[in-house]
Design goal:
The termini are far apart. By secondary structure, the chain is mainly alpha-helical. It has four helices and no strands. The protein has a domain of about 55 residues. The radius of gyration is 23 Å and the shape is elongated.
């Protein structure tokens, strides 16, 4: 049990280091497509969590499956919110209407 846990912890730490290195080297102009791609991946994770919840038999499995669905849903929704905010930064701002010359002269 302890050896398996150590292997899982090692894999987790390595993936964290690799993920930080990859994301740190991405230019800021590519963050929006990167977020969209990660949203698609998290959608697959959400489907997997629902499948796990659907095949749960014990109370612990049901609780963990439910938490997985909730967290995956929050991750997908949050990713789309961030992507939408980033895309809003690139939209042209509407121009203010010009004042009428008659009103200014009065």
């Amino acid at each position: 049990m302890g050896n398996v846990l150590l292997q899982y912890a090692t894999v987790l730490m390595l993936t964290i280091f690799v993920g930080v290195e990859i994301i740190a080297k991405v230019p800021s102009i590519l963050h929006t497509p990167l977020m969209s791609g990660s949203n698609a991946i998290h959608g697959v994770i959400l489907v997997g969590a629902m499948l796990v919840l659907g095949s749960a038999h014990t109370t612990l499995e049901m609780v963990l499956g439910f938490l997985a669905v909730i967290l995956a849903t929050l991750n997908v929704v949050g990713g789309f919110v961030v992507t939408d905010r980033m895309l809003e930064m690139f939209k042209a701002k509407p121009k203010a209407p010009a004042a009428k010359s008659d009103e200014v002269a009065s």
